[in-house]
Amino acid sequence: MLLSPWHKLPTQMRNEAVKPYYDILATKKIQLFTKRLFDLIVASLMLLLLSPLFIVIAIAIKLDSKGPVFFRQTRVTANCKNFKIFKFRTMCENAEQLGTQVTTHNDMRVTRVGAFLRKYRLDEIPQLMNIITGDMTYVGTRPEVVKYVEQYTPEMYATLLLPAGVTSRCSIEYKDEEELLAKSDNADATYINVVLPQKMKINLEAIRSFNILDEFLTTVDTVLAVIGFEKREVRDRRLEIRGLTL
Fold first, then answer.
1. Is the dihedral of CA 34, 136, 146, 103 positive or negative?
2. Are 111 and 92 in contact (CB under 8 A)?
3. Is 79 within 8 Å of 10 (Cβ atoms)?
4. What is the mean pLDDT of the chain?
5. What is the pTM of this model?
6. What secondary structure does DSSP assign to 119-155, as a single string?
7. 125 near 53, Cβ under 8 Å?
């Protein structure tokens, strides 16, 4: 994955707050190329190996509730580009018309199979297709919907210098996000005014300290968090976040 020339970035990204992050990434072109090559090779292999699981999950979704197997939603990735994210459907049909664009704990829109898929992040597997097309990467800032990107500060646009990620350090530390939002009277407002700024601090730090080794370790920590064997420091940080958010 190559960094776009500064003059070709969208106007809203060419600001003084984004420039320092751009300059940091501009010195790491070999690592960025390696990152893209890794994404292509691993995503292609995993898509092939996991194809039987795709079929099993697809059948389970269709048997459990009415609606399509896949959920596709417009999100924002590198250079403010809109794209359609692939996920296994975990909610009832037309869920977006029945509630907010963030999911809360015990959300009534989530199906039985959907709850299982979300718990183990199996709903994210189809994003392998987004990785292959270049709209996403394994490790990077999780893609937001347009509604929330419109609330970004000038500095937050630095997270759009690179493709959106399937996982990130922020994703691990905010694993309890749905539970936190469930305790809010207005989930959208809480997400925009409290959760989003906190998450962006972590995402921006990841841009400043970007390197391939850290991304590999983040991938490992993600797997550990999903199966319930997260590191003590990660668990402590999640508890700290819970205190800041509630």
1. negative
2. yes
3. yes
4. 88
5. 0.85
6. HTTGGGTTHHHHHHHTSEEEESPPPPPHHHHTT--TG
7. yes
Residue type, 101: Q
Amino acid identity for residue 70 in this structure: F
pLDDT tens sequence across 33-92: 999 999 999 999 999 999 999 999 999 999 999 999 999 999 999 999 999 999 999 988
Residue 172: CB atoms within 10 Å: 21
Q: Give the length of the chain.
A: 246
Lowest mean pLDDT among 2-6, 79-83, 90-94, 112-116: 90-94
The whole-angstrom separation of Cα 5 and Cα 86 is 28
The per-residue b/e assignment along 138-159, b for 16 or more CB within 10 angstroms, e otherwise, is bbbbbbbbeebbeebeebbbbb
**What is d(CA 110, CA 65) in angstroms, rounded to the nearest whole number?**
10
Buried b (16+ CB within 10 A) or exposed e, 36-65: bebbeeebeeebeeeeeeeeebbebbeeeb
Tokens 């391939």 correspond to what residue? 212
What single DSSP character describes residue 110? Answer: B
Helix (H, G, I), strand (E, B) or coil at 25: helix
Assigned token pair, 129: 């297709």
> Is 26 or 94 the better-scoring residue by pLDDT?
26
**Amino acid at site 76:** V
Cα separation, 168 vs 161, in Å, equals 15
Asked if 198 contacts 244 with a C-beta cutoff of 8 angstroms, the reply is yes
Nearest to 96 by CA among 67, 64, 125, 76: 67
